[in-house]
Amino acid sequence: MLLSIDHQTRYRFDEPVAHALQRLRLTPKTTSGQSILEWEMTLTGATVEAEYEDQNHNRTTLIALEQGAREVTVTCRGLVQTADQSGVIGRHAGHLPLWHFLDNTPATAPGSRMRALVAALPVEDDLVATLHRLSAAVIATVSYEGGHTDADTTAEVALAGGRGVCQDHAQIFTGCARMLGVPARYVSGYLMMNDRVEQEASHAWAEAHIDNLGWVGFDVSNGISPDRRYVRVATGRDYREAAPVTGISYGGGDTAMHVTLAVEQQHGQ
Question: Are residues 102 and 140 in the same domain?
Fold first, then answer.
């Protein structure tokens, strides 16, 4: 499937910015199940300071906002060819050892509710089936509903609240999978919706490493493994390590952010 992606993030500041740096993980790479045919990032109100691969093998762009800027826009556009591999990414690669993904972060650290969720899973010899049951248990416990969590909400808190979004589902799954002794990581990326082109935000899911298969994706929010509608962009042990945009700023007052995103299949290709 050939997917076109148009993703724009616009920031407006009440006051001129004195100094700000942002780390962008918005450039996907050609990997198992996807080929990047075209990709372009354009900036207004900011300049590129450096480009590098971070510890999770993500393509990362460091930008500096222009001094005195009142508005900054980051626009990414591209074409990605995808294939359905039932969520299987394959062997582990990158700068970090596989055991690194057994360690939880403060965002994914289990509490009593996550431990109870894992303890309630039936004992099975089939690890893939167990992880699908875990995915189903998470979405059954935490309904998809925006406005109740934010970027700083931990997996345990989201599970206790019973409502959350894809970020929460992915972090709960990764924390629970690690309790089962399975390396797991958070994935940020794009999903082509079947019922609309315009979206309000990018998507997130999880991957677990299974012997003889390698990394396998689990989209808890939709109850499936990723197919050809998905584009992987960044991975990490939690949301913060794979977040599309992180940074620091001085001045600028209050900030308003507006995101527009369109993911669409290119027919006839």
Answer: yes
Beta bridge partners of 255: 13
- Mean residue pLDDT across the chain: 93
> Does residue 136 sit in the same domain as residue 46?
no
State whether the Cα torsion 182-215-233-173 is positive or negative. Answer: negative
Q: Are strands 17-27 and 245-251 parallel, antiparallel or unpaired?
A: antiparallel
For 226-269, write each residue's pLDDT tens digit.
999 999 999 999 999 999 998 876 666 567 888 999 999 998 55
pTM: 0.94
Residues 70 and 113 in one domain: no
Distance CA 134, CA 139 (A): 9
161 lies in the same domain as 28:
no
First to last CA, the chain: 8
CATH number, position 59: 2.60.40.2250
Structural domain span for residue 198: 88-241
Measured CA to CA, the distance from residue 66 to residue 71 in angstroms comes to: 10
User: Phi first, then psi: what are they for 82, rounded to 5°?
Assistant: -120, 160
> Which strands make up the sheet holding 88-90, listed edge to edge?
88-90, 214-218, 203-210, 184-191, 230-236
Name 170's Cβ contacts closer than 8 Å, sequence gap at least 6: 186, 187, 204, 205, 206, 220, 239
Task: Count the domains in the chain.
Answer: 2
pLDDT tens sequence across 61-95 = 999 999 888 899 999 999 999 999 999 999 998 88
